[in-house]
Amino acid sequence: MALEDRDPVRPRGQQVNGEVSGVPPLRSATAPGGSRTDMVAEGWEPAPCDGDVTARAAPRRTGQPEEALMSELSELVQKVVKSSSWWERHGVDISILACSFLLLPAGFLCLRSAQAIPFLAGVLILGVVHHTLTVKGSHLASHNALTESKSWGKVWAIFFIELCSAFTVEQGTYNHVKIHHGYTNIIGLGDSSTWKVPFLNRYVYMFIAPLAVPILTPLVALGLLRNVEWKAALRTLCCMCLGFYCHYWLLLHISGFQSPWSALLCMLLTRSLLAHPYIHVNIFQHIGLPMFAADRKPKRIHLMSLGVLNLPRNALLDWSFGHSLISCHVEHHLFPSLSDNMCLKIKPIVSQYLKQKKLPYNEDTYSSRLWLFLQRYEELMVHAPPITELVGIQ
Q: How far apart are CA 374 and CA 201, in angstroms?
């Protein structure tokens, strides 16, 4: 199993990322509210800033080339992967997805109840299942982390990304895997600028706009179909329509909704149940961290340790989104082909290694990042982010 994604050639075409990047506060190792982010680890001394445009950080040499650092870390992780069973590599995450499918009948049947508590339980079940399949399932499938077979990987990608998530495999995989992972926090490539909506104020963007995600996702997918071959576009359209119709049909015939509009409203409610943390997590883990020019980006291990942040573990989000999107995002960006469970298993090794080599290992709480965005929304989400130069490691 390949543990690293090679840097792809400079891409052409539209850039749409699955996650969001941002602007670097390099001089503070403590986020607002006193939570530690380790943005400036020991051995990383910020040099004087040139106004508000370019922050320069001059790292102390560890006496080891950057390529050797990544190679050494890869060997440590490879030993863990080789010694792990199939259950640890794939089985745990497949079981979570399978359990989510098994919960679907209970969710639809609960919606038949005229009482509030069973009905709300049905909404909760279907909402969590939907996000588990569309976020966790699609994310793992896009990285082929559910199986070691490329053929089955393609099948799972079509099922989770197109049928469940109403998106296109080709563009989704290209923009997330090739662009976002290949050029994490690189201005104009992996900076996820498409997530920014400058004309919305902070409260609308953070608390109201996420409710539109179920509507905007298929619309964006339809716009991207012009960039794929007609056969792939036709397949995507068929899968999207089938996924929507199955959900709609089950609400009418199993849950007993009497009108099409009530069924559609319930679809919107369940599909947007976790849309707020979905948007928040995507922007929290890259915005506020260093960004780079394409011709001045650092080596892979520095790029990922500087430009990615982990959030604390959370039972609901760990289940629905997966460890690689929550508490193991640094590990995921360093080794994107690993499953959620394997990212969690290698987390102690990666964190200890980066700290031992005096490289940043960014961590912060959900509440701290939310407060940061509410306080600095204009700087982080409206204005263009500054470019960071790490003097001496290009």
A: 10
What is the token pair recorded at 187? 């201005």
| Structure-derived torsion over alpha carbons of residues 371, 377, 174, 169, reported in degrees to the nearest 10 | 70
Beta carbons of 35 and 370 less than 8 angstroms apart: no
Q: Average the pLDDT over each of 22-31, 143-152, 364-373 and give the range with the smallest value.
A: 22-31
- Tokens (6 digits) for 69: 């650092």
Kindly state the tokens that stand for 188.
């104009």
> HSE (CB half, 13 Å, CA atoms) of 391?
11
User: Which region, left, alpha or beta, applies to residue 38 given φ > 0 means left and ψ of -120 to 50 means alpha?
Assistant: left
- Report the 3 state secondary structure along 160-220: HHHHHCCCCHHHHHHHHHHHHHCCECECCCECCHHHCCCCCCHHHHHHHHHHHHHHHHHHH
Given the DSSP bridges, would you call strands 54-59 and 309-310 parallel, antiparallel or unpaired?
unpaired
- Signed CA dihedral, 115, 116, 120, 123: sign only: positive
The four Cα atoms 234, 236, 239, 241 give a dihedral, to 10 degrees, of: -80
Q: Say whether pTM exceeds 0.85.
A: no
Residues 117-139: pLDDT tens digits?
Answer: 999 999 999 999 999 999 999 99
Please tell me the distance from the alpha carbon of residue 339 to that of residue 326, in angstroms, as a whole number: 13
At 95-120, the pLDDT tens digits run 999 999 999 999 999 999 999 999 99
